[in-house]
Amino acid sequence: MKLEVQYDSLARQHATARLGMWVFLASESLLFAALFALYAAYRFIYPAEFHAAAAHANVLLGTINTYLLLTSSLTVALSIHETKHGRRRRALVLLAITIGLGVTFEVLKLVEYGLHLRDGIAPGGYYSFSELPAHGAVLYFTLYYLMTGLHALHVLGGLAALAWLWLRLYRGRITSESYLALELGGLYWHLVDLVWIFLWPLIYLVK
Amino acid sequence: MATPDPDTNAPSAITYVVVWVVLIVLATASLLLSDVVVGGSGLALSLVIATLKAGLVAAFFMHLAHGRAAHRMAFAAAIAFLLLLVLGVIADVGTRSIASVYVDDVGN
User: Fold this and answer.
1) Domain edges within chain B
2) 3-state secondary structure of A85
3) How far is A107 from chain B (nearest CA, A)?
4) What's the complex ipTM?
């Protein structure tokens, strides 16, 4: 990795990059914070409607996705660990598993959206679920689409980054001597997991 | 020049696996408890478990526990502002009926 002119060592350059990543993750947290605040407000105003609406959430798919993302956090952490110790082949396999888990997450999310849309559970003004016409239920499902949709876009971004990192690792551009990019990509992937850790109970476990 | 290892005391592979097992156990506990503890207290309980899980991911997978203090500060600031925002919003909607003298639409 190239040493930029403003640093006297790669160590300092990397320390700056890591701190920069954490500041970015902090700003990402605040992006989701706005939606969590919105959820809190409407859950407070419409508690009964939120609980009735959550009964129609697909707990099975949501829960499978929870296990997938938690496991993908482990595999990406292990992939970095293996890279650090010079075991490139194992690192490549672990990173590929991470990508596979992420892709499965997205596919299941699409299946879940498809099942809801078939029932007329669409966001905002497109909502036409006759079993549950309450205003609060519409808000619950609109927030559901907004929060899981924004999260799914982050998963997609994370997947693109991980795929690029896999290629760099494969081509020997990421090595046990130089793996900062992989470390930062891993941090981003963990943040995506962190957000889901809170989305899962708020959307699927409300009973 | 070699990339310096910032975390010489980074978690071992075994630690990562143990953390993952605990995460899976906590997720399963949260799922099972959601049928037992329902309503507002159920939501509170599931959020407590979620916070524990998030803490484990941040501390071990994201190396916050042994990384630089500056990383912890950046993240702690975000969490503090997140709580400020969410609690402020709850304080608002939660006290609207008291303040209904001043507010026409109490949100019902």
Assistant:
1) 1-67, 69-108
2) coil
3) 21
4) 0.94
* Global pTM value: 0.93
- The torsion angles phi and psi of B9, rounded to 5 degrees, stand at -105, 35
Copy the structure tokens of residue A188.
């981003």
Q: Calculate ∠ Cα A100-B12-A200, nearest 5°.
A: 45
Contact B24 A70 (CB under 8 A): yes
Q: Tens digit of pLDDT for each residue in B13-44?
A: 999 999 999 999 999 999 999 999 988 899 99
Find out whether A115 and A60 touch, Cβ atoms under 8 Å: no
* A·B CB contacts under 8 A: 157
Hey, is A107 helix, strand or coil?
helix
The answer to the question of residue A12 being in a domain is no
- Residue A68 tokens read as 């997938």
The whole-angstrom distance between residue A93's C-alpha and the CA centroid of its chain comes to 21
Of A3, A23, A206, the CB nearest to B74: A23
Asked, for residue A16, whether it belongs to a domain, the answer is no
Q: Is B7 helix (H, G, I), strand (E, B) or coil?
A: coil
